[in-house]
Amino acid sequence: GLDISTLLKETGYVTLDPGFVNTASCTSAITYIDGDAGILRYRGYPIEELAERSSFVEVAYLLIYGELPTSAQLEDFEGRIREHTLLHEDFKAFFSGFPRDAHPMAVLSSAVSALSTFYQDSLDPSDPDQVDISSIRLISKLPTIAAYAYKTSIGQPLLYPDNSLGYIENFLRMSFGLPTVPYEIDPEIARVLDMLFVLHADHEQNCSTSTVRMVGSSQANLFSSVSAGVNALFGPLHGGANQAVLEMLERIHQNGDDVDGFVRRVKAKEPGVKLMGFGHRVYRNYDPRAAVVKKATREVLDRLGKPDPLLDLAMRLEEVALNDDYFVERKLYPNVDFYTGVIYKAMGFPTNAFTVLFALGRLPGWIAQWREMMADPALKIGRPRQVYTGSPERHYTGIEKR
Ligand code: ACO
Predict the structure, then answer these.
(1) 88 is catalytic
(2) Which reaction does it catalyse (predicted)?
(3) What is the pLDDT of residues 233-260, one digit of tens each?
């Protein structure tokens, strides 16, 4: 009748599972994935339905509070988000303090970490009101931080948030608007960006979310935990893949669109050559998010009248890979990052901002997972064991004898 962890503790055995390929770190009621069938659901709702019918702010509410909001609840939630979009004036000095060419993900994680210094009244993880206000502050301020990081990098003035606008529209205006020129928001672009954020909003115990939970398990505050998640997302095997995909497509394009030659190099496992945007730890089937993004990419390029040879190239690459034994045997399919870069580029975002967009989308998931963990009476500090492979006991020798 002993559970596995008690059994292992009592017998002194540990499981060795590098990369946690088969080890669950928690129970969770937020997101369901069936990787073989290519199914993703938030709180039971299929991702395809949410992408088509819901909105990012509504999905944030769903993930954090567990149910879709009534219209009064949604209005209240949106109102609270609007109230907190401004950053403290002194916070602005932060952006000019970094080198202009700093990667925006590095700026973002530093800025999120700095929220703990500016908003000291919401740091106590055991106080539900403080947890709630820090959640709202993060959702409200992350787009402002992301837009300010971008504006600073291109030497343009920072725009204050305009709270008469919706969440996505406000972010687009702060990113692309100028104080001297009225900024016209393309509602179709705003709709697609909103949908992309919905698709990214949670993905159960991925690398960054596990990081957020691990840091939070020490009772670190929500800002500190989320900034650690941003850092985990930065890596090219995780959120950084959307940037890496676009750079890969550009390199292949410059090499005369030699798709077959590139695929040969991937299969030969040349160091550093991977088909970025392909493969996933959990999906052994087409990533359902990638299917939605692929369709949207074509629609956005058509709407903007901006055909991009990189989209045709990506589609050819996908076709070649899906018909090649190497990828078929390993069950490697496009993941969410394979097509997003082409859309973000068409919307006008620079390549190094793509992972920041992923972070904006993933934020509600990080918050929901952190809160679920904190509310769990069985919460224990995350502390994996190891299998020691070093030297047996030996004795110190003075430096002259070594
Ligand atoms: N290109 C070429 N070969 C690949 C790729 C790829 N993109 N992905 C996996 N493989 C191969 C591996 O070399 C390995 O081959 P082997 O059995 O001959 O050794 C096999 O497929 C299994 O791959 P693993 O690396 O063991 O799979 P793992 O679950 O550890 O890694 C990961 C998953 C990191 C996503 C991997 O597929 C990858 O590096 N993909 C490219 C980066 C990427 O797109 N990341 C985004 C992931 S989605 C996200 O975070 C939103």
Answers:
(1) no
(2) oxaloacetate + acetyl-CoA + H2O = citrate + CoA + H(+)
(3) 999 999 999 999 999 999 999 999 999 9
What's residue 2's pLDDT? Answer: 67
Q: How far from chain centre, in Å, is Cα 372?
A: 18
Q: Is 241 in the pocket of ligand 1 (CB under 6 A)?
A: yes
Is residue 266 lining ligand 1, measured as CB closer than 6 Å? yes
Look at residue 37 in the predicted model and tell me its pLDDT. 94
**For residue 1, what pLDDT is reported?**
64
- Unique residue bearing structure tokens 């960006």: 193
> What distance lies between CA 224 and its chain's CA centroid?
16
Task: Return the minimum-mean-pLDDT range out of 1-15, 137-151, 169-183, 297-311.
Answer: 1-15
Of the candidates 334, 338, 335, 345, the residue with the CA atom closest to the CA atom of residue 300: 345
348 within 8 A of 304, measured Cβ to Cβ: no
Residue type, position 302, single letter:
D
The residue whose CB lies within 8 Å of the most ligand 1 atoms, and thus the one to mutate among 335, 336, 358, is 335
CA distance 37 to 25: 23
* ipTM above threshold 0.95: yes
Ligand 1 atom nearest 279 alpha carbon: 37
280 within ligand 1 shell (Cβ under 6 A): yes
- DSSP result, 321-389: HHTSHHHHHTT--B-THHHHHHHHHHHT--GGGHHHHHHHHHHHHHHHHHHHHHT-TT-----------
Report whether residue 337 contacts ligand 1, using a CB cutoff of 6 Å: yes
* pTM for this prediction: 0.95
